[in-house]
Design brief:
The chain is α+β, with helices and mostly antiparallel strands and 261 residues long. Helices cover 41% and strands 26% of the residues. It has three domains: 11-83, OB fold (Dihydrolipoamide Acetyltransferase, E2P) (Beta Barrel), CATH 2.40.50; 88-167, DNA polymerase, domain 1, CATH 1.10.150; 173-260, 2-Layer Sandwich (Alpha-Beta Plaits).
């Protein structure tokens, strides 16, 4: 069977397997069938700063998050970049990797206890939910029937459900930001209050599984604390705060800025 390849633009986890004067080769997690030197990061794609010594930026055996730039399936070549991965993306991907490994461990424990094939259960979860960790989070909430409906034997489903309840908590990440708003209108204070009241009301409708807390530090400074299940959602909410602020105050005499903390 032909090995699958990652998609251009996909973020992957790789382990550095070989260093050369021109770059580094990586084995790619979840694409191990492609070989230990499947991915290549050219020296120019290792860092945003000048690389004088490649070993000061990457070492053999080191794990890294990289972005897929080019895939040549005919030649089996995959070009990747580490410097084009932002810090929030890196944290999110590493957290996802850690969660998935832990979920795989729980599946192995549950399946070995009731003598059910680990691979078949993992394939069922991946096919339905896209990741094993997401499947266990859903099983924690949906119960045994959610697992048996996708073909997992009842004995294994019961063990998985119990382990998910005991070992997994719904993930939470926290994003802190500073919003500066100065409104020069005569009723500036009223407009600010109207904006925050309206935003909080709409937020609860748009993001039911996330929370936001906007606190006054000292006008014009407002602390924005976002709690969500993952970094991608939290980053999306932070962008939404900026968009809504700009739209609301666009027709008023106001200044605003945004800063991540």
């Amino acid at each position: 069977m032909e090995a699958s390849f990652p998609r251009v633009g996909e973020l992957i986890i790789g382990t550095c397997s070989k260093l050369t004067p021109h770059g580094a080769y990586f084995e790619i997690f979840d694409y191990e069938k492609l070989g230990p030197e499947a991915g290549f990061v050219h020296i120019s794609e290792l860092s945003r700063t000048w690389v004088r010594n490649i070993r000061s930026h990457i070492r053999e055996g080191q794990r890294a998050v990289a972005k897929i730039l080019r895939v040549d399936t005919a030649r089996g070549e995959i070009d990747m970049s580490i410097r084009r991965v932002s810090e929030p993306q890196r944290r999110s991907k590493l957290n996802e990797f850690k969660q998935e490994n832990r979920a795989r461990g729980l599946i192995t424990v549950a399946c070995e206890k009731v003598e059910v094939s680990v691979n078949s259960v993992e394939e069922s979860l991946l096919g339905k939910f896209g990741s094993i960790y997401e499947g266990l989070i859903k099983a924690r909430e949906g119960g045994v029937s959610l697992l048996t409906e996708i073909g997992i034997p009842e004995a294994a489903a019961e063990e998985i459900h119990q382990l998910a309840l005991k070992e997994l908590q719904p993930p939470t990440v926290r994003l802190n930001g500073l919003v500066k708003i100065t409104c020069y209108e005569p009723e500036g204070v009223i407009l600010l209050k109207k904006f925050f009241t309206s935003y909080n009301k709409n937020f609860n409708k748009k993001y039911k599984s996330s929370d936001i807390n906007i606190q006054i530090i000292s006008p014009p400074d407002y602390r924005c604390v976002i709690e969500s299940g993952d970094w991608r959602t939290a980053e999306g909410i932070w962008k939404d705060v900026q968009k809504e602020t700009e739209q609301f105050f666009a027709s008023y005499d106001a200044e605003y800025s945004f800063e991540r903390h």
